[in-house]
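Shape matters. Shown next:

___
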Amino acid sequence: MSIEEITILFETSEILMLVAIFFIFNISLIAIEIVFDLAKRKGRNWKDTLSNITIYFLGQLTEKLLLGSLGLVALLPIYYFIPYDIPMTWWTWGLGIIAADFTYYWMHRLEHEHRILWASHSVHHSSQDYNLTVSFRLSIIEGLFEWMFLIPMIIAGFNPFQAIMCLIFVAQYQTWIHTEKIYKLGWLDEIFNTPSVHRVHHGSNQEYLDKNYGGVLMIWDKIFGTFKREDQKVVYGLTENINTNNPLKINFIEYKNIWEEVKLCRTFSDKCRIIFGNLAWKPSYFKKSKIY
């Protein structure tokens, strides 16, 4: 084994160790918040909290299988066909996190703008509570397609392992921002994704819809016109809440809704638009027939 290979192996093990430490830290924060709320007898929805934790454990296998294994298997052939590569060094990890954050912004935004992608992402927004366990409330099948958004990073020359780990870091960072216990943080709210900034993103208030997509940095929202400050009380949940704590229903109810609407469409074009189009679009005859 060459010196370069040993160095890469050492740096890789360090990154995995940091991710593990970050993960343990996040779990500890969630445990502390639960104990605090139990001690204070806070009126949170404990059934909702249990659903969030259950969804997390259901998703661990699929997330690692789909985003980890499937992602690597799919991305490696692309990587090996690229005639150049970005070496894995300390500075390219920083560059990778910025690239992954930019990738996350567009992945996140598209998940809000296209119905079939929203079907999985809506899982995360369906809680009417807002606490750290909401960070656990993620689709158990989103890893089936989210790796695809990393293709531009691979084409740019990033190693698939590095790209996936950077995206995981961006996701892990967001655990601590799912809380009402931290109010506003001044100038930090203008630069980073913070509790105040992310509360806006989870709001079903009309003026808060489709705002603050950023993972770590808010510069992307400011550049692309989707930044919004928290200036009134946030109403959490969906614009039409699903009212269930069943983890499987939470994960698949929007797919069922899409299918029900597809069956009512009169043309193939309308069926495709219901599946892949904007969330708000419906054929005009839906209203005439009092479907909605």
Remarks:
- Confidence is low (pLDDT under 50) at residues 1-10.
- The chain has two domains: 3-224, 248-288.
- DSSP finds 13 helices and no strands in the chain.
